[in-house]
Specification:
- The structure holds two protein chains of two kinds.
- Chain A folds into two domains: 1-91, RNA polymerase sigma factor, region 2, helix turn helix motif (Rna Polymerase Sigma Factor, Chain: A, Orthogonal Bundle); 94-182, Winged helix-like DNA-binding domain superfamily/Winged helix DNA-binding domain (Arc Repressor Mutant, subunit A).
- By secondary structure, chain A is an all-alpha fold.
- In chain A, 71% of the residues lie in helices and 0% in strands.
- In chain A, helix 7 (120-129) crosses helix 10 (160-180), helix 8 (133-144) packs across helix 10 and helix 9 packs across helix 10 (160-180).
- By secondary structure, chain B is mainly alpha-helical.
- Chain B has two domains: 7-50, no CATH class; 63-176.
- Helix content of chain B is 70%, strand content 0%.
- The two termini of chain B are 50 Å apart.
- The chains are: A mainly alpha, B mainly alpha.
- The A-B interface holds A 18-19, 21-22, 25-26, 29-30, 33-34, 37-38, 43, 46-47, 50-51, 54-56, 58-60, 120-121, 124-125, 128, 139, 142-144, 148-149, 164, 167-168, 171-172, 174-175, 178 and B 7-8, 11-12, 15, 17, 42-43, 46-47, 49-56, 58, 60-63, 65-67, 69-72, 185-186, 189.
Chain lengths: 182, 189
C-alpha cells in the first residue's frame, strides 16, 4: 500500500480527520526537532518547542498552500516558534549592540565562549546559540533551510536590508567567537 | 573592479545574491587580488563550519502529546474549569435562595442570617469576578452568551433567582463538558 502524500494528509486533516495530522507529526518530528535544537542548543527545550511547532502548525494549517512542499513550511514555523521563544526569554534588544559586532575583543569576554574542551562542531553550535535570536534565525534559515534573502525577509517579516545586516553581523560575530576558541 | 569588495559583498557572492554584473566584477577582482582571495576562502570556511553541525538523533515521539493538544475537546480545557467554576457559584446561589424560600433564615437566628447574607454577597462577588475574568479570555464564547455578573445583579433578590441560577448552572455544566461548544480555535496560537 502506498503511503499517503503530505498533501493528502494535510487535506484530510483540514477535513477534520485529526488522526491524519498524527502521521504528519511522525514524518516531520525529526527535522522540526533539528531546527529547534540548532536554534536553542538544549534537548528538552527543543523538544517542547518542536511540540509547540506542530500545535501551532495545526491551528494555522489553512494558511499552508497544499500544492507546495510541507517540509519547508513546517521548518519555517519551527524557526519562528523558536525565535519568539528566544525573544520572550531575553527581552533586551541586541539590535543596537553594534559595539560588540565591531569588537572581537569584546566577544572574547563572553562567558559562552569558554569552550576549550568541546569538539569543533559543538563549538560552532554553541557559538550559534550564543547569538541573539534574530541572528540565530537568519543563520538557520540561510544555512540550513537554504532560503534566499527575500524568502528570509518574508518569513521573519523584516525588511531585506535588515536580513542582509543580520546575516553580516551574525557571521562576523561567529567568526570572532570561533577564532577565539581555536 | 579595482577597489576591494567589502565583506558584505563577499557574503552576497557566496550566498548567490549578487546580480550577474556584480558577480563578474567580484570574480574579476579575485583573479588579481590574493588578499581578497584569502578573505573569501576564510568566509567560505566559516560557511562550511556553520553548516557542519550534525543532526541530533531524536528518539522521542511527539505524536501523543501533539494529538492530545489538537483534539477539539482539548481546546476547551480552560472552559471546562471555568464552566464548572461558574456552575458551582450558580448552585451556591440557588442553595442560598432555596434556604431563604423555606424561611429558614428567620428560624436560624441573627448569626445564621448574617452568615447567609455573607454567602449571598460572596456568591455575587464570585460571579462578578468570573465574569470579569471571562471578558479577558480571548475568543471566550461564554462572555457573549452570558454577562454573568449583570445577570446575577438583575436576578439577585428576586423570586426567579432559584430558577435562573439552576438554568445557568446547567448551561455552564454543558459548556464545561463540551456538549455545546465543540469547535473553535486555540486562543494561544
Amino acid at each position: 500500500m502506498v503511503d499517503p502524500t503530505d498533501r493528502d494528509l494535510v487535506l484530510r486533516t483540514r477535513r477534520g480527520e485529526v488522526e491524519a495530522f498524527g502521521e504528519v507529526v511522525a514524518r516531520y518530528q525529526q527535522s522540526v526537532f533539528n531546527v529547534c535544537f540548532r536554534m536553542l542548543g538544549e534537548r528538552m527545550e527543543a523538544e517542547d518547542l518542536a511540540q509547540e511547532t506542530f500545535i501551532r502548525a495545526y491551528t494555522r494549517l489553512e494558511t499552508f498552500d497544499a500544492e507546495r512542499p510541507f517540509g519547508p513550511w513546517i521548518r519555517r514555523v519551527a524557526t519562528n516558534v523558536c525565535l519568539n521563544h528566544i525573544q520572550k526569554q531575553k527581552p533586551e534588544s541586541y539590535e543596537f549592540d553594534e559595539e560588540r559586532d565591531r569588537s572581537p575583543a569584546a566577544a572574547r569576554e563572553e562567558p559562552e565562549t569558554s569552550l576549550q574542551s568541546v569538539q569543533a562542531t559543538e563549538q560552532v553550535h554553541r557559538a550559534i546559540v550564543a547569538l541573539p535570536g534574530n541572528y540565530r534565525a537568519v543563520i538557520e534559515l540561510r544555512h540550513y533551510q537554504e532560503m534566499s534573502y527575500s524568502e528570509i525577509a518574508e518569513v521573519l517579516e523584516l525588511p531585506l536590508s535588515d536580513i542582509k545586516s543580520h546575516l553580516y553581523r551574525a557571521r562576523k560575530r561567529l567568526a570572532g567567537l570561533l577564532s577565539t576558541n581555536e | 573592479m579595482s577597489e576591494h569588495p567589502n565583506n558584505e559583498t563577499f557574503q552576497g557572492y557566496l550566498d548567490d545574491e549578487l546580480t550577474q554584473p556584480e558577480r563578474r566584477q567580484v570574480e574579476a577582482h579575485l583573479r588579481i587580488c590574493p588578499t581578497c582571495e584569502i578573505e573569501l576562502a576564510q568566509l567560505r570556511s566559516l560557511f562550511h563550519s556553520i553548516e557542519s553541525i550534525p543532526s541530533e538523533m531524536f528518539e522521542e515521539d511527539l505524536v501523543p502529546g501533539v494529538m492530545a493538544a489538537v483534539q477539539p475537546r482539548a481546546n476547551w480545557l480552560p472552559s471546562i474549569a471555568i464552566g464548572e467554576l461558574v456552575a458551582a457559584a450558580a448552585l451556591t446561589l440557588a442553595l442560598v435562595q432555596w434556604l431563604g424560600g423555606l424561611e429558614l433564615q428567620s428560624r436560624l437566628g441573627g448569626a445564621a442570617q448574617r452568615l447567609l447574607g455573607q454567602l449571598e454577597v460572596a456568591a455575587v462577588g464570585l460571579s462578578t469576578t468570573v465574569s470579569d475574568f471571562l471578558t479577558q479570555v480571548p475568543e471566550s464564547p461564554q462572555v457573549d452568551l452570558f454577562q454573568f455578573g449583570d445577570l446575577m445583579g438583575t436576578f439577585f433578590g428576586s423570586s426567579s433567582l432559584l430558577w435562573a441560577s439552576g438554568a445557568i448552572a446547567f448551561a455552564f455544566l454543558l459548556l464545561g463538558n463540551g456538549l455545546i461548544l465543540r469547535t473553535g480555535k486555540d486562543s494561544h496560537v
